[in-house]
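Posting for a labmate who doesn't have an account.
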Amino acid sequence: MQVLLIAVNQEKHPYPVQPIGATYIAAALREKGHHVKLLDLNFVDDFRKEIPLVLNGFKPGLVGISIRNIDNTMYPNMEFYLPRIKEIVNCCKAYTPARLVVGGSGFSVMPQEILEYFDLDLGITGNGEEVICAVVSRMEEGTDIERIDGIVYKKNGAYIKNPVTYTSYGCDGLEPDRFLLDLERYFEEGSVAPIQSKRGCEFDCIYCTYPLIEGKMVRVRDPKMVVDEIEKLKRDYGIDYVFFIDNVFNYPMNHAIAICQEIIDRKIEIQWTGFFNPTFMTEESVSLLKESGCSGVELGTEAACDKMLKNLGKSFNLNTLISSHKLCAEAGLKTCHYLLLGGPGETIETAEETLQVMRELNPTAVIVATGIRIYPGTPIEKIALEDGYNLQNLLIPQFYISKELGENVEETIQNFAKKYPEFIFEGVHKKTSKEILKMMRRMGFKGPSWEFAPVMNRLLKRQGQDGQKT
Protein backbone atom coordinates (compact mmCIF):
# COMPACT_ATOMS: atom_id res chain seq x y z
CA MET A 1 0.00 0.00 0.00
CA GLN A 2 1.02 3.60 -0.58
CA VAL A 3 1.18 5.30 2.84
CA LEU A 4 1.77 9.01 3.34
CA LEU A 5 2.94 10.05 6.81
CA ILE A 6 2.61 13.72 7.77
CA ALA A 7 4.62 14.98 10.75
CA VAL A 8 2.65 18.09 11.71
CA ASN A 9 4.94 19.69 14.31
CA GLN A 10 6.16 23.16 13.30
CA GLU A 11 7.47 24.39 16.66
CA LYS A 12 11.15 25.27 16.20
CA HIS A 13 12.08 26.87 19.53
CA PRO A 14 14.64 26.35 20.95
CA TYR A 15 15.45 24.12 17.95
CA PRO A 16 13.46 21.97 15.48
CA VAL A 17 12.84 18.46 16.77
CA GLN A 18 13.22 15.55 14.37
CA PRO A 19 10.01 13.44 14.16
CA ILE A 20 11.65 10.22 15.31
CA GLY A 21 8.29 8.51 15.87
CA ALA A 22 7.19 9.02 12.26
CA THR A 23 10.52 7.66 10.98
CA TYR A 24 10.06 4.52 13.08
CA ILE A 25 6.57 4.07 11.61
CA ALA A 26 8.00 4.53 8.12
CA ALA A 27 10.70 1.92 8.76
CA ALA A 28 8.16 -0.62 10.05
CA LEU A 29 5.89 -0.14 7.04
CA ARG A 30 8.74 -0.35 4.54
CA GLU A 31 9.97 -3.54 6.19
CA LYS A 32 6.54 -5.03 5.41
CA GLY A 33 6.89 -4.04 1.76
CA HIS A 34 4.75 -0.90 1.73
CA HIS A 35 5.64 2.29 -0.14
CA VAL A 36 6.06 5.17 2.28
CA LYS A 37 6.49 8.91 1.87
CA LEU A 38 7.10 11.26 4.80
CA LEU A 39 5.98 14.87 4.60
CA ASP A 40 7.74 16.74 7.40
CA LEU A 41 6.03 20.09 7.93
CA ASN A 42 8.81 21.45 10.13
CA PHE A 43 10.34 23.21 7.14
CA VAL A 44 7.21 23.76 5.05
CA ASP A 45 6.17 27.41 4.83
CA ASP A 46 2.69 26.84 3.39
CA PHE A 47 1.13 23.44 4.02
CA ARG A 48 -1.99 24.50 2.06
CA LYS A 49 0.11 24.41 -1.10
CA GLU A 50 2.43 21.53 -0.22
CA ILE A 51 -0.13 18.97 0.95
CA PRO A 52 -2.24 18.99 -2.27
CA LEU A 53 0.93 18.67 -4.37
CA VAL A 54 2.13 15.65 -2.40
CA LEU A 55 -1.30 13.98 -2.27
CA ASN A 56 -1.88 14.38 -6.00
CA GLY A 57 1.60 13.13 -6.86
CA PHE A 58 1.83 10.20 -4.43
CA LYS A 59 -1.85 9.12 -4.33
CA PRO A 60 -1.73 7.27 -0.98
CA GLY A 61 -4.17 4.63 0.17
CA LEU A 62 -3.69 5.75 3.77
CA VAL A 63 -2.60 9.05 5.32
CA GLY A 64 -1.09 9.01 8.81
CA ILE A 65 -1.12 12.21 10.87
CA SER A 66 1.66 12.22 13.49
CA ILE A 67 1.11 14.61 16.43
CA ARG A 68 4.02 15.32 18.77
CA ASN A 69 2.33 17.81 21.12
CA ILE A 70 -1.10 19.38 21.36
CA ASP A 71 0.20 22.51 23.11
CA ASN A 72 3.44 23.92 24.49
CA THR A 73 2.44 23.32 28.17
CA MET A 74 3.82 26.77 28.98
CA TYR A 75 2.09 29.15 31.38
CA PRO A 76 1.27 31.98 30.88
CA ASN A 77 2.42 32.09 27.21
CA MET A 78 0.32 29.11 26.17
CA GLU A 79 0.20 28.01 22.54
CA PHE A 80 -2.53 25.59 21.47
CA TYR A 81 -1.51 23.62 18.37
CA LEU A 82 -4.69 21.67 17.58
CA PRO A 83 -6.54 24.39 15.61
CA ARG A 84 -3.67 24.55 13.12
CA ILE A 85 -3.42 20.75 12.99
CA LYS A 86 -7.16 20.63 12.29
CA GLU A 87 -6.54 22.85 9.26
CA ILE A 88 -3.94 20.32 8.09
CA VAL A 89 -6.43 17.48 8.57
CA ASN A 90 -9.14 19.36 6.67
CA CYS A 91 -6.69 20.08 3.86
CA CYS A 92 -6.02 16.34 3.57
CA LYS A 93 -9.74 15.59 3.54
CA ALA A 94 -10.27 18.04 0.70
CA TYR A 95 -7.62 16.55 -1.58
CA THR A 96 -7.65 12.79 -1.02
CA PRO A 97 -10.24 10.00 -0.69
CA ALA A 98 -7.70 8.01 1.37
CA ARG A 99 -8.54 7.09 4.92
CA LEU A 100 -6.88 9.22 7.59
CA VAL A 101 -5.41 7.77 10.77
CA VAL A 102 -3.98 9.78 13.68
CA GLY A 103 -1.14 8.81 16.01
CA GLY A 104 1.86 10.13 17.90
CA SER A 105 2.62 10.95 21.53
CA GLY A 106 0.34 13.99 21.57
CA PHE A 107 -2.56 11.98 20.23
CA SER A 108 -2.13 9.18 22.78
CA VAL A 109 -2.82 11.56 25.68
CA MET A 110 -6.43 12.22 24.61
CA PRO A 111 -7.23 9.98 21.63
CA GLN A 112 -11.03 9.97 21.64
CA GLU A 113 -11.24 13.71 22.24
CA ILE A 114 -8.80 14.49 19.43
CA LEU A 115 -10.57 12.24 16.93
CA GLU A 116 -13.84 13.97 17.76
CA TYR A 117 -12.20 17.39 17.41
CA PHE A 118 -10.89 16.44 13.94
CA ASP A 119 -14.08 14.57 12.98
CA LEU A 120 -12.08 11.45 12.14
CA ASP A 121 -12.80 7.81 12.87
CA LEU A 122 -9.44 6.06 13.35
CA GLY A 123 -6.42 6.51 15.60
CA ILE A 124 -3.47 4.51 16.90
CA THR A 125 -2.03 4.22 20.43
CA GLY A 126 0.53 1.91 22.01
CA ASN A 127 3.47 0.56 20.00
CA GLY A 128 2.56 2.40 16.81
CA GLU A 129 4.88 0.40 14.56
CA GLU A 130 3.04 -2.85 15.29
CA VAL A 131 -0.44 -1.35 15.26
CA ILE A 132 -0.22 0.52 11.95
CA CYS A 133 1.25 -2.50 10.18
CA ALA A 134 -1.70 -4.56 11.41
CA VAL A 135 -4.13 -1.87 10.25
CA VAL A 136 -2.61 -1.65 6.76
CA SER A 137 -2.55 -5.44 6.44
CA ARG A 138 -6.24 -5.73 7.34
CA MET A 139 -7.12 -2.88 4.98
CA GLU A 140 -5.37 -4.63 2.10
CA GLU A 141 -7.15 -7.88 2.94
CA GLY A 142 -10.47 -6.11 3.27
CA THR A 143 -10.98 -7.61 6.74
CA ASP A 144 -12.18 -6.09 9.99
CA ILE A 145 -9.75 -3.83 11.90
CA GLU A 146 -11.91 -3.36 14.99
CA ARG A 147 -10.20 -6.07 17.04
CA ILE A 148 -6.67 -4.74 16.66
CA ASP A 149 -5.14 -3.87 20.03
CA GLY A 150 -4.26 -0.19 20.35
CA ILE A 151 -6.65 1.31 17.82
CA VAL A 152 -9.28 3.91 18.56
CA TYR A 153 -12.26 3.92 16.21
CA LYS A 154 -15.75 5.26 15.80
CA LYS A 155 -18.74 2.93 15.72
CA ASN A 156 -22.43 3.81 15.91
CA GLY A 157 -21.55 7.40 16.80
CA ALA A 158 -19.29 6.49 19.73
CA TYR A 159 -15.50 6.30 20.02
CA ILE A 160 -14.09 3.00 21.22
CA LYS A 161 -10.52 2.57 22.47
CA ASN A 162 -9.15 -0.94 22.31
CA PRO A 163 -6.79 -1.96 25.11
CA VAL A 164 -3.07 -1.60 24.51
CA THR A 165 -0.81 -4.59 24.97
CA TYR A 166 2.75 -3.81 26.06
CA THR A 167 4.88 -6.94 25.93
CA SER A 168 7.98 -5.63 24.15
CA TYR A 169 9.80 -2.47 23.14
CA GLY A 170 7.85 -2.70 19.90
CA CYS A 171 10.54 -2.42 17.26
CA ASP A 172 13.76 -3.78 18.74
CA GLY A 173 16.18 -4.26 15.86
CA LEU A 174 14.36 -1.69 13.73
CA GLU A 175 16.15 1.59 13.06
CA PRO A 176 14.24 4.73 12.11
CA ASP A 177 14.27 5.86 8.47
CA ARG A 178 16.19 9.05 9.11
CA PHE A 179 17.04 9.40 5.41
CA LEU A 180 13.45 10.59 4.90
CA LEU A 181 14.31 13.78 6.83
CA ASP A 182 16.26 16.84 5.76
CA LEU A 183 18.96 16.12 8.32
CA GLU A 184 21.32 18.77 6.99
CA ARG A 185 18.69 21.44 7.57
CA TYR A 186 17.90 20.09 11.03
CA PHE A 187 21.52 20.19 12.16
CA GLU A 188 22.07 23.62 10.62
CA GLU A 189 19.28 24.91 12.85
CA GLY A 190 20.66 23.32 16.01
CA SER A 191 18.74 20.06 16.22
CA VAL A 192 20.33 17.09 17.95
CA ALA A 193 19.96 13.49 16.79
CA PRO A 194 17.33 11.71 18.91
CA ILE A 195 17.81 8.10 19.95
CA GLN A 196 15.60 5.88 22.12
CA SER A 197 16.73 2.98 24.25
CA LYS A 198 13.54 2.15 26.14
CA ARG A 199 9.83 2.81 26.47
CA GLY A 200 7.49 2.90 29.44
CA CYS A 201 7.58 4.62 32.82
CA GLU A 202 7.09 3.01 36.24
CA PHE A 203 7.23 6.22 38.26
CA ASP A 204 4.32 8.07 39.86
CA CYS A 205 4.88 11.77 39.19
CA ILE A 206 1.44 13.36 39.50
CA TYR A 207 1.66 15.36 36.26
CA CYS A 208 3.37 12.94 33.89
CA THR A 209 1.83 11.62 30.66
CA TYR A 210 4.54 9.06 29.86
CA PRO A 211 2.59 6.18 31.45
CA LEU A 212 -0.37 7.15 29.25
CA ILE A 213 1.75 7.39 26.10
CA GLU A 214 4.14 4.46 26.57
CA GLY A 215 2.58 2.41 29.36
CA LYS A 216 3.80 1.68 32.90
CA MET A 217 5.85 -1.36 31.94
CA VAL A 218 9.45 -0.51 31.03
CA ARG A 219 10.64 -2.27 27.86
CA VAL A 220 14.29 -1.93 26.88
CA ARG A 221 16.21 -2.31 23.64
CA ASP A 222 19.30 -4.49 23.43
CA PRO A 223 22.19 -2.17 24.41
CA LYS A 224 24.27 -3.51 21.51
CA MET A 225 21.53 -2.50 19.06
CA VAL A 226 21.30 0.95 20.64
CA VAL A 227 25.03 1.48 20.18
CA ASP A 228 24.87 0.01 16.68
CA GLU A 229 22.51 2.85 15.84
CA ILE A 230 24.84 5.43 17.41
CA GLU A 231 27.75 4.01 15.42
CA LYS A 232 25.72 4.20 12.22
CA LEU A 233 24.72 7.81 12.91
CA LYS A 234 28.37 8.76 13.28
CA ARG A 235 29.53 6.75 10.27
CA ASP A 236 26.76 7.57 7.79
CA TYR A 237 25.82 11.11 8.81
CA GLY A 238 28.89 12.44 10.61
CA ILE A 239 26.83 12.98 13.77
CA ASP A 240 28.90 13.56 16.89
CA TYR A 241 26.14 14.47 19.37
CA VAL A 242 23.01 12.47 20.24
CA PHE A 243 20.18 12.94 22.69
CA PHE A 244 18.53 10.01 24.48
CA ILE A 245 14.81 10.75 24.43
CA ASP A 246 13.97 8.07 27.03
CA ASN A 247 11.78 9.46 29.80
CA VAL A 248 14.59 8.41 32.19
CA PHE A 249 17.90 7.23 30.76
CA ASN A 250 19.44 5.89 33.98
CA TYR A 251 16.62 3.50 34.88
CA PRO A 252 16.96 0.54 34.90
CA MET A 253 20.53 1.25 36.02
CA ASN A 254 22.01 -1.96 34.62
CA HIS A 255 20.64 -1.11 31.16
CA ALA A 256 22.10 2.40 31.22
CA ILE A 257 25.45 1.08 32.43
CA ALA A 258 25.48 -1.53 29.64
CA ILE A 259 24.96 1.16 26.99
CA CYS A 260 27.75 3.31 28.43
CA GLN A 261 30.09 0.34 28.59
CA GLU A 262 29.30 -0.62 25.00
CA ILE A 263 30.15 2.90 23.79
CA ILE A 264 33.41 2.78 25.76
CA ASP A 265 34.36 -0.71 24.53
CA ARG A 266 33.85 0.31 20.90
CA LYS A 267 35.82 3.53 21.44
CA ILE A 268 33.09 5.63 19.80
CA GLU A 269 33.87 9.32 20.06
CA ILE A 270 30.43 10.78 20.63
CA GLN A 271 28.88 13.34 22.92
CA TRP A 272 25.43 12.79 24.31
CA THR A 273 22.94 13.70 27.00
CA GLY A 274 19.47 12.72 28.18
CA PHE A 275 16.98 12.84 31.04
CA PHE A 276 18.06 11.48 34.42
CA ASN A 277 16.50 10.59 37.76
CA PRO A 278 18.63 11.63 40.78
CA THR A 279 17.65 8.42 42.60
CA PHE A 280 19.91 6.30 40.42
CA MET A 281 23.15 8.26 40.43
CA THR A 282 26.20 6.46 41.83
CA GLU A 283 29.93 7.11 41.61
CA GLU A 284 30.28 4.14 39.24
CA SER A 285 27.47 5.20 36.93
CA VAL A 286 28.55 8.86 36.83
CA SER A 287 32.11 7.79 35.99
CA LEU A 288 30.82 5.67 33.11
CA LEU A 289 28.60 8.50 31.90
CA LYS A 290 31.62 10.77 31.67
CA GLU A 291 33.86 8.18 30.04
CA SER A 292 31.25 7.27 27.41
CA GLY A 293 30.90 10.87 26.23
CA CYS A 294 28.00 12.20 28.28
CA SER A 295 28.46 15.96 28.31
CA GLY A 296 25.64 16.82 30.69
CA VAL A 297 22.61 15.54 32.54
CA GLU A 298 19.05 16.89 32.48
CA LEU A 299 17.43 16.24 35.84
CA GLY A 300 13.66 16.12 36.27
CA THR A 301 14.03 17.79 39.65
CA GLU A 302 10.77 19.81 39.76
CA ALA A 303 11.36 20.97 43.35
CA ALA A 304 14.14 21.28 45.92
CA CYS A 305 12.26 20.94 49.17
CA ASP A 306 10.99 17.70 50.66
CA LYS A 307 7.39 18.88 50.99
CA MET A 308 6.99 19.60 47.28
CA LEU A 309 8.99 16.59 46.14
CA LYS A 310 6.52 14.42 48.04
CA ASN A 311 3.49 16.35 46.78
CA LEU A 312 4.65 16.00 43.18
CA GLY A 313 5.11 12.24 43.55
CA LYS A 314 8.86 12.26 43.03
CA SER A 315 10.90 9.16 43.90
CA PHE A 316 13.69 11.01 45.76
CA ASN A 317 14.19 13.48 48.59
CA LEU A 318 16.27 16.63 48.88
CA ASN A 319 19.34 14.89 50.28
CA THR A 320 19.40 12.47 47.33
CA LEU A 321 18.98 15.35 44.91
CA ILE A 322 21.89 17.30 46.40
CA SER A 323 24.24 14.32 46.60
CA SER A 324 23.46 13.30 43.00
CA HIS A 325 24.04 16.82 41.74
CA LYS A 326 27.40 16.97 43.51
CA LEU A 327 28.46 13.60 42.06
CA CYS A 328 27.80 14.94 38.56
CA ALA A 329 29.47 18.29 39.19
CA GLU A 330 32.58 16.67 40.68
CA ALA A 331 32.84 14.41 37.61
CA GLY A 332 32.79 17.45 35.35
CA LEU A 333 29.31 16.86 33.92
CA LYS A 334 27.18 19.87 33.11
CA THR A 335 23.88 19.87 34.98
CA CYS A 336 20.44 21.21 34.19
CA HIS A 337 17.58 21.15 36.69
CA TYR A 338 14.00 21.46 35.49
CA LEU A 339 11.72 23.02 38.11
CA LEU A 340 7.94 23.04 38.25
CA LEU A 341 6.49 25.69 40.54
CA GLY A 342 2.86 25.89 41.62
CA GLY A 343 2.01 22.27 42.38
CA PRO A 344 -0.35 21.18 45.18
CA GLY A 345 0.70 22.81 48.44
CA GLU A 346 3.19 25.19 46.85
CA THR A 347 3.67 28.46 48.75
CA ILE A 348 5.87 31.48 48.28
CA GLU A 349 8.11 29.98 50.96
CA THR A 350 8.48 26.54 49.33
CA ALA A 351 9.14 28.11 45.92
CA GLU A 352 11.73 30.40 47.50
CA GLU A 353 13.36 27.42 49.22
CA THR A 354 13.59 25.53 45.92
CA LEU A 355 15.11 28.47 44.06
CA GLN A 356 17.58 29.19 46.86
CA VAL A 357 18.79 25.57 46.92
CA MET A 358 19.32 25.77 43.16
CA ARG A 359 21.36 28.93 43.54
CA GLU A 360 23.53 27.24 46.16
CA LEU A 361 24.06 24.19 43.92
CA ASN A 362 25.04 26.51 41.04
CA PRO A 363 24.23 24.16 38.13
CA THR A 364 24.91 24.94 34.49
CA ALA A 365 21.26 25.83 33.97
CA VAL A 366 17.96 25.96 35.80
CA ILE A 367 14.77 25.99 33.73
CA VAL A 368 11.68 27.04 35.66
CA ALA A 369 8.11 26.34 34.56
CA THR A 370 5.01 27.51 36.42
CA GLY A 371 1.76 25.61 36.67
CA ILE A 372 1.01 21.97 35.85
CA ARG A 373 -0.76 21.28 32.56
CA ILE A 374 -3.69 19.05 33.51
CA TYR A 375 -4.12 15.94 31.35
CA PRO A 376 -6.85 13.33 31.78
CA GLY A 377 -5.76 10.13 33.46
CA THR A 378 -3.00 11.76 35.50
CA PRO A 379 -3.11 12.10 39.31
CA ILE A 380 -3.15 15.89 39.01
CA GLU A 381 -6.52 15.64 37.26
CA LYS A 382 -8.05 14.03 40.36
CA ILE A 383 -6.38 16.58 42.64
CA ALA A 384 -7.64 19.46 40.50
CA LEU A 385 -11.21 18.14 40.61
CA GLU A 386 -11.02 17.83 44.40
CA ASP A 387 -9.82 21.44 44.51
CA GLY A 388 -12.81 22.66 42.51
CA TYR A 389 -11.34 23.01 39.00
CA ASN A 390 -13.79 22.86 36.09
CA LEU A 391 -12.26 20.24 33.79
CA GLN A 392 -15.01 19.66 31.24
CA ASN A 393 -12.72 20.10 28.23
CA LEU A 394 -9.04 19.36 28.79
CA LEU A 395 -8.18 19.66 25.12
CA ILE A 396 -8.06 23.37 25.86
CA PRO A 397 -4.96 23.76 28.06
CA GLN A 398 -5.71 24.23 31.74
CA PHE A 399 -3.11 24.58 34.47
CA TYR A 400 -3.09 23.65 38.12
CA ILE A 401 -1.53 26.47 40.15
CA SER A 402 -1.53 26.50 43.94
CA LYS A 403 -3.75 29.26 45.29
CA GLU A 404 -1.15 29.84 47.99
CA LEU A 405 1.09 31.53 45.43
CA GLY A 406 -1.30 34.47 45.55
CA GLU A 407 -3.88 35.98 43.23
CA ASN A 408 -1.41 37.49 40.77
CA VAL A 409 0.75 34.48 39.87
CA GLU A 410 2.31 36.15 36.85
CA GLU A 411 3.57 39.02 39.00
CA THR A 412 4.94 36.52 41.52
CA ILE A 413 6.88 34.72 38.82
CA GLN A 414 8.13 37.99 37.36
CA ASN A 415 9.46 38.89 40.81
CA PHE A 416 11.20 35.52 41.11
CA ALA A 417 12.72 36.01 37.64
CA LYS A 418 14.14 39.36 38.70
CA LYS A 419 15.53 37.93 41.92
CA TYR A 420 17.07 34.91 40.16
CA PRO A 421 18.17 36.31 36.77
CA GLU A 422 20.61 33.44 36.20
CA PHE A 423 17.67 31.02 35.83
CA ILE A 424 15.53 30.54 32.72
CA PHE A 425 11.89 31.22 33.58
CA GLU A 426 9.62 29.82 30.86
CA GLY A 427 6.86 32.26 30.05
CA VAL A 428 8.96 35.28 31.01
CA HIS A 429 9.69 36.32 27.45
CA LYS A 430 13.15 37.40 26.42
CA LYS A 431 12.84 38.96 22.97
CA THR A 432 16.46 38.44 22.04
CA SER A 433 16.91 34.84 23.13
CA LYS A 434 16.01 33.30 19.74
CA GLU A 435 18.39 35.58 17.89
CA ILE A 436 21.23 34.87 20.30
CA LEU A 437 20.54 31.14 20.08
CA LYS A 438 20.81 31.25 16.28
CA MET A 439 24.05 33.20 16.53
CA MET A 440 25.55 30.64 18.90
CA ARG A 441 24.56 27.77 16.60
CA ARG A 442 26.38 29.52 13.77
CA MET A 443 29.39 29.81 16.07
CA GLY A 444 29.47 26.00 16.35
CA PHE A 445 27.76 25.40 19.72
CA LYS A 446 26.13 21.96 19.71
CA GLY A 447 23.76 20.11 21.98
CA PRO A 448 20.77 21.29 24.02
CA SER A 449 20.66 25.07 24.43
CA TRP A 450 20.86 24.83 28.23
CA GLU A 451 24.44 23.54 27.98
CA PHE A 452 25.58 26.99 26.92
CA ALA A 453 23.06 28.93 29.04
CA PRO A 454 25.82 30.76 30.97
CA VAL A 455 27.18 32.16 27.69
CA MET A 456 23.69 33.13 26.56
CA ASN A 457 23.01 34.88 29.86
CA ARG A 458 26.20 36.90 29.53
CA LEU A 459 25.24 37.92 25.99
CA LEU A 460 21.72 38.84 27.10
CA LYS A 461 23.08 40.89 29.98
CA ARG A 462 25.56 42.65 27.69
CA GLN A 463 22.82 43.34 25.15
CA GLY A 464 20.63 44.80 27.89
CA GLN A 465 23.46 47.07 29.03
CA ASP A 466 24.10 48.21 25.45
CA GLY A 467 20.40 48.97 25.08
CA GLN A 468 20.46 51.14 28.22
CA LYS A 469 23.44 53.12 26.87
CA THR A 470 21.61 53.92 23.65
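Reply:
Got it, the C-alpha coordinates are right above this. The longest strand covers residues 294-302.
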